[in-house]
Amino acid sequence: MAQTTAPPRNIGRFTLYFFGALGGVLFGYDLGIVAGVLPFVTELWHLSSWGTGVITASVSAGAVVGAILSARTNKALGRRRTIQLAGAVALVGTAIATVAGSAGVLTFGRFVIGIGVGLSSSTVPTYLSELAPARLRGALGALNQIFIVLGILVAFLTSYALGKSGDWRIMLAGAAVPAIVLIVGLSILPETPRWLLQHGDEASARAVLRQSHGSDADLDHELATIREVIAIDEQRGRPGDLWKPWVRPMLFVAVLLAAGQQLSGVNAINAYYPTMLIALGLATQAALLSGVLLGITKFVFTAWVVFVVDKWGRKPLLLVGNVLMAVCLLGAGLVATNVTDTGTRGLLMLVLIIVYLAGYELGWGAIVWVMMSEVFPLKNRPAGMGVSSVVLWAMTGVVTAVFPLISAPQRLGIGGSMFVFAGINVVLFFLTWWLVPETKGRSLEQIELDLRARAGLPTDAGAVTR
């Protein structure tokens, strides 16, 4: 049955994409701020390595729940309202965490925040990819990662600014700002044309396409292509479609990208860089200041990706990122295990971490979210993004919970942990080389129709049969 809505407001493309990607700031701030909070709450509550790991991983645990819920909320509420719901949930969690009087309450508050982060991280890439024309989709997907690293940078700056006072509650309360801006900002944005057309509102879908693709776009062709894919999916759509032979390869690719992003070691660095650098001999404020340098590095290289992702392609950037990360992690392991002078060791580790993060943001930071939102068919995209996000957040939880344990001096130590992550990046390089396809320059509908053609399935709605 056709569903009609009020015509979308006349919104410029800058506003459309800016607020569409704003969920990344919330995501990044909540990931990054724990690095500044941990040194203070660890001392306050005498936390063990396991205790710090649980507090850090609680956001990831909540994000798994949010990612699971996202497929249903995307289908029922749409992309836009799901992102608003994410902001509201994160706001509640922020309030709980800010007033926490114990490690248990702080953990619960961050778990609730994680639900909002999971809803947002599963939906924002889909929202942007469904708004963007094919020629800009990589850049606009990278915009999401720019906002994530901007949130991390703001968190690192906040941690450093409040480091002398040790006011970790204000650090946590800062997450309320992006949550509120997200809720308000999304209220002026439209739903995606694909979701609108899927729900029978062609007039609004056409208006949104005109806003997001420009007045010179061939709107009739775009709508016809979207309509064709919707018709095919509606005739063949079943609960187990993600495991169908023609979809399964893309499910494997998305899961590889999601797991690989976290197993590369990035959130061990993001969450524990002050603790790690302090253990290697830096003072607390110096370690927090180094976070500002790390945040700036992440921001600059993610911004660069916006300009090269649709020229160089997705796969080459992933491979280059793996090489840089593996070399830097190997070097970090050698420095941690062989250099004894604390000043030299701390400086070398900081340089290697900076180059490592440059490699990560150049490849596995932005590209993973772009590709996960590209590879699934329309009908399966919410479920596919949900599954991918569950895997990503589960791996984030594993890495952030386990890193304090394995990096302890009596176990692998910091050096041994770096060697492990270096080895994982070597494995990821070869898996990416063999398995990951290139999606540069193709519309979402072309990607889906190519998948069907390779599997020998019909590529027009009228030919599809059960």
UniProtKB/TrEMBL annotation:
<keyword id="KW-0813">Transport</keyword>
<feature type="transmembrane region" description="Helical">
    <location>
        <begin position="316"/>
        <end position="335"/>
    </location>
</feature>
<feature type="transmembrane region" description="Helical">
    <location>
        <begin position="276"/>
        <end position="309"/>
    </location>
</feature>
<dbReference type="InterPro" id="IPR005828">
    <property type="entry name" value="MFS_sugar_transport-like"/>
</dbReference>
<feature type="transmembrane region" description="Helical">
    <location>
        <begin position="347"/>
        <end position="371"/>
    </location>
</feature>
<feature type="transmembrane region" description="Helical">
    <location>
        <begin position="412"/>
        <end position="436"/>
    </location>
</feature>
<dbReference type="InterPro" id="IPR036259">
    <property type="entry name" value="MFS_trans_sf"/>
</dbReference>
<feature type="transmembrane region" description="Helical">
    <location>
        <begin position="140"/>
        <end position="162"/>
    </location>
</feature>
<feature type="transmembrane region" description="Helical">
    <location>
        <begin position="50"/>
        <end position="71"/>
    </location>
</feature>
<dbReference type="GO" id="GO:0022857">
    <property type="term" value="F:transmembrane transporter activity"/>
</dbReference>
<dbReference type="InterPro" id="IPR050814">
    <property type="entry name" value="Myo-inositol_Transporter"/>
</dbReference>
<keyword id="KW-0812">Transmembrane</keyword>
<dbReference type="GO" id="GO:0005886">
    <property type="term" value="C:plasma membrane"/>
</dbReference>
<feature type="transmembrane region" description="Helical">
    <location>
        <begin position="83"/>
        <end position="105"/>
    </location>
</feature>
<dbReference type="InterPro" id="IPR005829">
    <property type="entry name" value="Sugar_transporter_CS"/>
</dbReference>
<feature type="transmembrane region" description="Helical">
    <location>
        <begin position="16"/>
        <end position="38"/>
    </location>
</feature>
<dbReference type="Pfam" id="PF00083">
    <property type="entry name" value="Sugar_tr"/>
</dbReference>
<feature type="domain" description="Major facilitator superfamily (MFS) profile">
    <location>
        <begin position="16"/>
        <end position="440"/>
    </location>
</feature>
<dbReference type="InterPro" id="IPR003663">
    <property type="entry name" value="Sugar/inositol_transpt"/>
</dbReference>
<dbReference type="InterPro" id="IPR020846">
    <property type="entry name" value="MFS_dom"/>
</dbReference>
<feature type="transmembrane region" description="Helical">
    <location>
        <begin position="383"/>
        <end position="406"/>
    </location>
</feature>
<keyword id="KW-1003">Cell membrane</keyword>
<comment type="similarity">
    <text>Belongs to the major facilitator superfamily. Sugar transporter (TC 2.A.1.1) family.</text>
</comment>
<keyword id="KW-0762">Sugar transport</keyword>
<keyword id="KW-1133">Transmembrane helix</keyword>
<keyword id="KW-0472">Membrane</keyword>
<feature type="transmembrane region" description="Helical">
    <location>
        <begin position="168"/>
        <end position="189"/>
    </location>
</feature>
<feature type="transmembrane region" description="Helical">
    <location>
        <begin position="246"/>
        <end position="264"/>
    </location>
</feature>
<protein>
    <submittedName>
        <fullName>Sugar porter family MFS transporter</fullName>
    </submittedName>
</protein>
